[in-house]
Design brief:
Layout (H helix, E strand, L loop, with lengths): L1 H24 L6 H18 L5 H14 L1 H19 L2 H12 L3 H19 L4 H12 L4 H11 L7 H8 L3 H5 L5 H18 L3 H7 L4 H6 L1 H19 L6 H19 L17 H22 L5 H5 L4 E6 L4 E5 L3 E7 L4 E6 L9 H11 L4 H14 L1 H17 L7 H13 L7 H12 L2 H18 L4 H14 L5 H11 L5 H32 L1
Helix pairs in contact: 1-2, 1-21, 2-20, 3-20, 4-18, 4-19, 5-16, 6-7, 6-9, 6-14, 6-15, 7-8, 7-25, 8-12, 8-25, 8-26, 11-14, 11-24, 11-26, 14-15, 20-23, 21-23, 22-23, 22-24, 22-26, 23-24, 24-26
Length: 541
């Protein structure tokens, strides 16, 4: 009985996570927005009645979770809004035609659209949009929908940790930073190792993805172009990751796309084949006009993120503009329109939202409305785009709310929190060998949530706790967590359903998971090898 009582906190701490995974993978799976919210409520009851945490403290953390949800949901809204605009203005159709005209070689088209183009889109918007945009283009070029679905999911992995302007990194580990566990320097160090692991994986994963849509013979004949296209994205990606955790995917993808298009036009590294191109030629002006919104988006992002230009500082100005004591919360607005909710319910719990700095209103919403005006989209059609986008954000909003509240609840209790209990137990079981399995925990997080960001939010604190307990380098373990969250996108039910819906692929979700699980496990092996190398160098130093 005594042994049972000792193990009961661990069982009750792990059970909600297991329950969540089961709800997501069972035959009649529960949607993430229901499962996450339901499990969050279950944890609330556990914290209240078993762990005996204060009622108002739990409610304060729930309220903070609501505020915290504003950041990722507005980014998602902006990304969807942008992509809807690209469809409404006809830009995406022109881009589709332009990309298809570059080179008739199918491998060239796959690498340009499914790799480089998707890489850039992931850097700008993330949250599953690259596969949703690239996949229909590839089907339009004549590739089979089922194969395209698998290919697009596998390809959308390497850039994910720095997707949506680095959201999985800077926001995914944001709770650890707010708690004082991590600093900006720590997050940058995590980004450096994350980028290097993904860089090495880039030599393997794109080739595996291609194998699901073409033959080994075609891959061998075009291997020169394949690796030139890969390196065109991953080299600037790796270099930027050493100094910044927001731009690697966005800039790396942009550079990679330009270089891949140039190489394809010149036929460098590609097997020669008959054109057979029946597409209508496009003028330079048509292509430029269609790419203009993407160019403006990237320009604004870069200008507002480079510290030396001074705009970043203005957008993060915390100087109070006015404040109100509402009794249940101390509400403050800064000069940069940072909305701060302090001392919620008098429990010392705080949360904030950076209205201007979060990549939502600037640049997505501004770029969209400017583009709708410049392309002379009617007032009625413009608001149709807006309201359609709002409708699409409801389920992600509920899912992210559930995830963030769940994380908040699991961290209540200090050294006796559910996160600490799990971390301590895992540390005792795995010891220093945990580094070889850490990425798969991140993959599990992405599997049931569909998001690298949510995975890092959910498991980042657990990973940090384990690393601390067994004396592993925390930056390495958290880098493995972030890599795991990225590679888990391949098997994410949410992402698979989204791609299948776009391509009208019926009842193939299980078949797709069986295929994408193979490169996902390979990715984990690469991550484990890199972890061993990192630790060997750190010990030697």
């Amino acid at each position: 009985m005594e042994a049972l009582n000792q193990q009961l906190p661990l069982v009750l701490s792990i059970f909600p996570v297991i329950l969540l995974i089961w709800l997501m993978v069972k035959k009649n799976s529960v949607p993430s927005y229901i499962a996450l919210s339901g499990v969050a409520f279950f944890i609330y009851l556990l914290q209240l009645f078993y762990f005996k945490n204060d009622f108002m403290t739990l409610n304060a953390n729930a309220a903070a979770g609501v505020v915290a949800t504003l950041t990722p949901i507005t980014v998602i809204f902006g990304a969807i809004f942008f992509n809807r605009m690209m469809e409404a203005t006809g830009c995406i159709g022109v881009i589709r035609q332009w990309l298809g005209n570059i080179n008739p070689n199918p491998v060239a088209q796959l690498m340009i659209i499914g790799w480089a183009f998707a890489f850039m889109v992931e850097g700008a918007s993330g949250f599953g949009t690259p596969a949703a945009i690239a996949a229909p283009i590839l089907v339009g070029l004549g590739f089979k929908p089922m194969q395209v679905a698998v290919f697009a999911l596998i390809m959308n992995s390497v850039p994910v940790s720095f997707g949506a302007v680095g959201t999985p990194t800077w926001f995914g580990f944001g709770e650890l930073k707010k708690s004082g566990i991590l600093t900006d320097e720590d997050i940058l160090a995590i980004g450096k190792e994350t980028g290097l692991i993904h860089f090495v994986a880039g030599f393997v994963i794109p080739v595996l993805a291609l194998r699901f849509i073409t033959t080994w013979a075609e891959i061998r004949k075009n291997i020169g172009f394949i690796y030139l296209s890969v390196l065109a994205c991953t080299v600037p990606y790796l270099l930027l990751a050493q100094v910044n955790y927001e731009f690697p995917s966005l800039v790396g993808g942009g550079i990679g796309l330009l270089l891949s298009v140039f190489l394809a036009n010149k036929g460098i590294g590609l097997a020669k084949m008959d054109s057979g191109n029946t597409h209508t030629p496009l003028s330079a002006a048509q292509v430029f006009k269609a790419l203009a919104p993407l160019g403006l988006l990237m320009l604004i992002l870069i200008v507002t993120r480079i510290q030396q230009l001074g705009i970043k500082g203005l957008l993060n100005d915390t100087t109070p503009l006015f404040s109100l004591n509402l009794g249940i919360v101390e509400f403050e607005v800064s000069r940069a329109l940072i909305l701060s909710f302090n001392n919620i319910f008098g429990q010392g719990v705080s949360e904030s939202y950076k209205t201007l700095y979060v990549p939502a209103f600037i640049p997505f919403v501004i770029t969209v409305w400017l583009s709708l005006f410049c392309f002379r989209v009617s007032f009625r059609d413009s608001f149709k785009v807006y309201y359609t986008t709002l409708g699409q954000t409801i389920k992600p909003l509920l899912a992210l709310f559930g995830a963030l509240v769940m994380v908040k609840f699991m961290m209540v209790g200090g050294d006796h929190s559910m996160v600490k209990v799990i971390g301590n137990s895992f540390a005792q079981i795995a010891g220093t060998n945990w580094a070889y399995f850490a990425s798969y925990l991140g993959a599990i997080g992405a599997f049931f949530s569909g998001s690298n960001t949510v995975s890092n939010l959910t498991f980042g604190s657990i990973q940090h706790s384990i690393a601390t307990q067994v004396h592993l380098p925390t930056d390495t373990v958290l880098a493995l967590q972030s890599v795991g969250g990225a590679m888990g996108n391949m098997v994410s039910i949410n992402n698979i359903i989204a791609v299948c819906s776009v391509l009208d692929v019926q009842n193939q979700e299980g078949a797709i998971i069986k295929k994408t699980a193979i490169p996902m496990f390979v990715y984990g092996i690469i991550a484990a090898i890199m972890a061993a190398i990192f630790m060997a160098f750190k010990i030697a130093a």
